[in-house]
Structure formats: C-alpha cells, structure tokens
C-alpha cells in the first residue's frame, strides 16, 4: 500500500520524548497509538528522512515551527514531525531546534509505521538504513485530506508554506 488522499491512516505506534511529566505521561519516551491520537483532530504531519540532517534541520522543521501559529489559526490542532529515529534523538532534535511544544517530535524507530504507509526510503547504500520519504499530509480524524510527497532529493512541496496555502 502507498498512502493516498482519502485513505484512513493505518494504525501503529509512534514514540515521543516527554520533557515534563504529567498524570498521563512519564518523563522520557512514551508510546502513542496513532489511531487514538488522530481521533477528532486535524493534524499537519510532515516526515523527514532523518533528524539533524541538513535540509531537515535548516528548512523543513524550522518552517513548521515558524508557521505553527498560522497553521493552528487555520484549524490545525497539532503538528507532527515524524522520522525514523528513536525518541531520544527526536527529543534532542526538538530541543536543538527550539520546538517548545509547537511541533510533536514523533519517532518511528524501526520504520514499522512508515512501511505501513508505503512511504519508506531505502538509504542502506548510504549507510542510513531504511528511512522515511520526505512528505507532508493533512489528516482529519484519521483520513488523509492532502498528501505532498517529495521527489527524491527535493524539497518543494512538503514545506509548511505549502501546507498553509492548502488550508486556504
């Protein structure tokens, strides 16, 4: 299966590093059921091949942090950054980028969820293993309303400004 507009997002588990304990979440990596987290929400999700990589750190994530309030003003409840990294790396990258809760840094450590979407990217030849393609998606109550998958090596359609424009 390759994800497309109109599809229901497949179930799975993503991990998020929680900085401050709450009644619901302990400090450190916490697992979240994707279906449960998407229920009744509009989520702007974007995925990157890897945390701390040049395009991801210099353009992709910063754009969503910068436009977070505008995206939320157009009806987005949450913004998720998904990468095939572990929750510790995603947490550290979020701190490094000054995310401060504007974007949920979601880890798909073994690429299981990314494979379920059909959006994996084989970078074993470059020593990076299996990663995620670069894309963005607008998800409403678990259904894909917009999907912007980049061509290999490109950063043209999955940026925050494109997502904002698609929200009207």
UniProtKB/TrEMBL annotation:
Functional description taken from the UniProt entry: Thiol-specific peroxidase that catalyzes the reduction of hydrogen peroxide and organic hydroperoxides to water and alcohols, respectively. Plays a role in cell protection against oxidative stress by detoxifying peroxides.
Keyword terms, alphabetized: Antioxidant, Oxidoreductase, Peroxidase, Redox-active center
GO biological process: cell redox homeostasis; cellular response to oxidative stress; hydrogen peroxide catabolic process
Example of a GO MF term: thioredoxin peroxidase activity
Alphabetized PANTHER family for the sequence: PEROXIREDOXIN, PEROXIREDOXIN-5, MITOCHONDRIAL
Gene3D superfamilies for this protein: Glutaredoxin
Major enzyme class: oxidoreductase
InterPro entries per the UniProt record, alphabetical: PRX5-like, Redoxin, Thioredoxin-like_sf, Thioredoxin_domain
EC annotation from Swiss-Prot or TrEMBL: 1.11.1.27
Matching CDD domains: PRX5_like (cd03013)
Keyword Thylakoid: no
Keyword Hydrolase: no
Catalytic residues as annotated in Swiss-Prot or TrEMBL: 56 (cysteine sulfenic acid (-soh) intermediate)
Thioredoxin domain boundaries: 3-168
Pfam families: Redoxin
Gene Ontology CC annotations of this record: cytoplasm
Family of this protein: Belongs to the peroxiredoxin family. Prx5 subfamily.
Protein name: Glutathione-dependent peroxiredoxin
Catalytic activity: a hydroperoxide + 2 glutathione = an alcohol + glutathione disulfide + H2O
